[in-house]
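Lecture notes, unit on protein representations.

Consider one protein chain, 317 amino acids long.
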Amino acid sequence: MKKYLIPISVIALLVLVVVCKDNLFAEQNKNENNQHVITDETPKNTVNTNIEENIDKNSNVINSEKEKLQDLKNNEPETMIEELALANGNKAQLLYNGDVLLRVNEKEIVVNSYVTDEMLFSNGITPNVEFTLQQVNDNKLLAITEYNPNMRYIEVIQRIYEIKEGSLHEFWKLESIDLDLLKVDKDIIEIGCSLTSNTIKLELTESEGQVVSQQLNDIQATFEENNLSMDELFWDNIKDNLITAITGCNWLDIDQDGDKEMIVSIYCYTVGASTPVHLREKGIMIYDLGETIELREIIFERDNKVDILEQYFIGER
């Protein structure tokens, strides 16, 4: 095989060309960067003006995009989700036009701006998001229930709107419930709720108590091996291991006084290896509606003694 030797003079020429080219690019970049460098000699008012101009430009871009999005929504045809006849011939309409809207007497309010038409109206494998409109207590309140299916259960958001002096506004909203796991022993689980000062106590069955007792003994042994104790810090660390989902909302005149109470269905379950109880429990929260909306009581399925309430204990699908 023949070997071809490149003369040293040619190599030197190539190196010289590359070096000169790099120096040229470096000088150009330096000049460009110097145009944007703020030095101590740069007048402060010039710096502030440049910053303000950039902020204004960005704000204008954002506002322009918002306007385009709103124009698209305004031009989208309205689809009726549900309609109710109110007193005096008025109507309450739940509509979709890119947003989910509640409209009463030409007054309207956005209920949800994150739902797409595919989420509402598609016939795919995934269940659709659903909205229902309910008239409550002499037409003074309108309740909208939003159903969001997931793999385990249907999560619910409840909104209540008030019609007052020709205006329409959000009166109340419930999208999450915080229940805390306070204490567990072989007989009772103590649960706290931010909506009431009363501690909820669930009595365990004999078989549940045996499992909890064994769990507590195992945890206690682990703590003792590490020279630790199951003090208040332990319970504070696991109090959030009780997960609560809102799984339904219904209306029932429990007191038979002509006014319906709101029944919010909940499903509670524990998580975490350090949690000494494996809980899967359905419950209901009963609310009274008046000038305000107040929680009357929380009832778990194991403690329910009223037959008419059985259908409202809704858990996993």
